[in-house]
Amino acid sequence: MPGEVSLAHNGVLFLDELAEFSRRTLDALRQPIEDKKVSVARVNGTHTYPAGFMFVTAMNPCPCGYYPGPKCRCTDYEIIKYRGKISGPIMDRIDIQKEVHPVGFFDIENQNATYSSIELREKVESARRIQQDRYKDEEGISCNAQMTTSMIQKYCELDADSLKLLKEISEKYGYSARVIHKLLRLARTSADLDGAEKIRKEDIEKVLSCRDLDESNSKMMVVK
Ligand SMILES: [Zn+2]
């Protein structure tokens, strides 16, 4: 009987309250997220199942859930410990990390959506078509997320300004090659969504804003 990661093959695996999962469970996710397959060792041998899924997850900013608002009663130490449950290697594998803040009931009416769901769907479908066309000669590749390192070099060329910006931020937060490759794949997608042939500086700025947790975690200090 396949487990959750195989049942999610070709679909979405959504884990709510990520910090509530055990470290062992979270670490077991690393291989399937990276290799798109999972190996299970049993008495009669090792079995490999497919596990190519989109990983989506949510968690509170702190144990009580109210950080950084005035209602939060957690200490910095508690917050760092809570966030520390998600190890660096797992964080590295999450392409888009966004902090969402509570919206006041009376503010919702004033918010105009930038795109309707229909418009967004059209943009996504068009970006997908661009990618299928781009990778038609690359075996087993149909979208930006699947680009190998050599393909990133081929399809994600940056101008001098974009390269400088990416380098500065990567040095500031100590990004690994894995994270930089993820950012480049995302930048390619950002350009594709606008139908732009080359990755622009605004794409790099946009993807760097997809790493909210790096910035927020770097602001936290342990008070002893
Ligand atoms: Zn709290």
From TrEMBL:
<protein>
    <submittedName>
        <fullName>Competence protein ComM</fullName>
    </submittedName>
</protein>
<dbReference type="InterPro" id="IPR025158">
    <property type="entry name" value="Mg_chelat-rel_C"/>
</dbReference>
<dbReference type="GO" id="GO:0005524">
    <property type="term" value="F:ATP binding"/>
</dbReference>
<dbReference type="Pfam" id="PF01078">
    <property type="entry name" value="Mg_chelatase"/>
</dbReference>
<dbReference type="Pfam" id="PF13335">
    <property type="entry name" value="Mg_chelatase_C"/>
</dbReference>
<dbReference type="InterPro" id="IPR045006">
    <property type="entry name" value="CHLI-like"/>
</dbReference>
<feature type="domain" description="Mg chelatase-related protein C-terminal">
    <location>
        <begin position="116"/>
        <end position="211"/>
    </location>
</feature>
<feature type="domain" description="Magnesium chelatase ChlI-like catalytic">
    <location>
        <begin position="2"/>
        <end position="103"/>
    </location>
</feature>
<dbReference type="InterPro" id="IPR000523">
    <property type="entry name" value="Mg_chelatse_chII-like_cat_dom"/>
</dbReference>
<dbReference type="InterPro" id="IPR027417">
    <property type="entry name" value="P-loop_NTPase"/>
</dbReference>
